[in-house]
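As practice, study what follows.
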Amino acid sequence: MNRITLRKLVAPVAIATACLTMTSTATAEQKMTNTEKAVALIESIENGNPEPVGFINPHKYIQHNLAIGDGLAGFGEAMKMLPPGGAKASVQRAFQDGDYVVLHTEYDFFGPKAGFDVFRFENDKIVEHWDNLQEIAPPNPSGHTQFDGPTQVTDLSKTDENKALVTDFVETILIKGDMGKIGQFIGPNDEDYIQHNPAVSDGLSGLGKALAALAQQGMPMAYNKNHKVLGQGDFVLSISEGKFLDKHVAFYDLFRVEDGKIVEHWDTIENIPPKADWKNDNGKFGF
């Protein structure tokens, strides 16, 4: 067989193979849920798989991490800054609320971090991203880490009532400070409320001691505005703005609700930099 004949045979095969690969990738994406896509994108930070980047809308990607530039270009620049082969990303919890997907992730890039990521989808593509990161600390006084505890979503039929309960809790207790009503939201015994904040022990007693200590130092924790509540089943994430240790911060609080009471809490608190240091103009919230 001469070279010309061989070239005539090989070229169509190569084209067909490329088309099959593209079709297979597109078909796989179509079969994935938005939650699965978001998890795959975060896990690609560690495994280096380039395919999940295709889940991002290349023409519209609004970035709310203020240390990263806007758009797909900003995402790419951030990925280039990661240490080669040294980044870790292990998703611990994932759930979906309409067009939003929430992930709770254990990271290790430029140091170990606990993080929440929120992705918004349009037409099955990621078009917007928020996150909140905090350094990982040793287990808290009750022995809990920032990640342990239940991971599977349950009580799907109670999503709306659980979101309403957390919304009321944030407004009544965290923003207005009406502590006399806390019994409506959390049980009285220490075992009724499992705490994963690295500085706070279980129960209302642990929460009370932590808040009192901050007040005595003249640096009370203040929630000023709730920007978004997202939930599925027994997991509900509240995204708020306020002050902590005299710094302007974003509060991401993940609650687990059971039988009409808040029974578990994970969180991250991240300082909001001055606007002069922002790498995009979208703001930390913008819901």
Summary: DSSP finds five helices and ten strands in the chain. Residues 1-24 have pLDDT under 50 and may be disordered. The longest helix spans residues 3-31.
